[in-house]
Amino acid sequence: xxxxxxxxxxxxxxxxxxxxxxxxxxxxxxKSLSPSVTLTKLRNHNFVLSDCMFIFHALLxxxxxxxxEHPGFPIKLLLPILWIIALLIPLTSQFFIPATxxxxxLLSFYSARFVPGPWRPEISVVLLPTLEYxxxxxxxxxxxxxxxxxxxxxxxxxxxxxxxxxFPFVVxxxxxxxxxxxxxxxxxKAFGYLNVTGVLFQIVFPCSAPWYELIHGLTxxxxxxxxxxxxxxxxxxxxxxxxxxVTFSNSPVVFGAFxxxxxxxxxxxxxxxxxxxxxxxxxxxxxxxxxxxxxxxxTHHYLIDVVGGACLAxxxxxxxxxxxxxxxGATAPPGGLASALRNSSSVGGGGRSKYEIxxxxxxxxxxxxxxxxxxxxxxxxxxxxxxxDEEMDITYRSPGITPTPASVKPLLNGSAPGKGNExxxxxxxxxxxxxxxxxxxTASIASLIRGxxxxxxxxxxxxxxxxxxxxxxxxxxxxxx
Length: 481
Hints:
56% of the residues lie in helices and 1% in strands. It has 22 helices and two strands. It has a two-stranded antiparallel ribbon. Helix 10 packs antiparallel against helix 14 (261-276). The longest helix is centred in the middle third of the chain and has 29 residues, at 150-178. Its main location: membrane.
């Protein structure tokens, strides 16, 4: 029973943590819809040299919109108009400005098909397999594809055909929830410029993939040739679909083997998670290693493509990583997250009683007829409080001025004749001076415990028929202390 409850409790706590982090992240957002706020920030912004990259984005976007054929004019003008609106609204600009390099990559990848033929360079078919033999002594991709199996196909398909498209969003979401906005901006910058550089290199320096060598050999290639899903065609056959065949056959960049952006993205994701979430290091690098193998097993890249993509990602990560996000700054939580997690812990299980932790029935509760549980009324009793205007400090009571407690009066009444009445009248008279009300305190428990062993030299007044002030010597010793 405990083995079933413990995983369930772990899942609930994880969900509570994510929910609390999401609420805290939403609370950190700028929810303003006024463009004037953005314009004010722009006027107050201190421009630096790195801001010139936005000029590069504007020029590159202008080029791609010029050569873009689908959608045609003037519909394609809606894209830059919507982009400008998203930049002016504070609620959306806090996401779109850091993601500008990523959107530039997507625009470049889509529009690459519209580059005029005379502008395109010659496709290299021989270079990559030749470098493979020179550097590694064999065609590693060819060796890895000689033995295939449906189980290996599934293992290779998941990171290459699913994780590559989903994992970047997962990394961005975790950074947004559990790290500062500076880390999220770094992710958009490093990941975006990595892909922009990779796709531009693939357009300027086109190379054929291993699947081309398997189908066409080393014969010259041309841009009229369709792409191929390679080993992913076995996944289509396994699931009785044509998704990957259609996607890769109509790819905008057919001859983009070098560098491998699949390997580059996996490396960047592993670097980010291992740096900002060190507890995930072994898992993310295992994922990256499997994806490296999958790119070659599915005949989409040579080993040199994988090495080139991984080196490019490593260079961009450390190029953009600022000093304040190294060391302890890498794992520093964003503002408001710690308090949100504490509140979630107290509500979602951190403040549970011992009866709930050990699955026991709380004896303070009782069930009613409809099956609901209520607390006993005794749990909510309000004890009688003193009506005195001023509480008395009972740390030390001087027996000469302290009013007689009600619990001690029976002892005084039962004392020797004359002494008890005399003491009671004396104390009552002192209490009445100044019109102060007597404070209703019970006798000090400490004074009743082993009272016969405590003497006046210790500063105690044993309960007897009358109160006796401490000796003068003891009082002088206490004053000197």
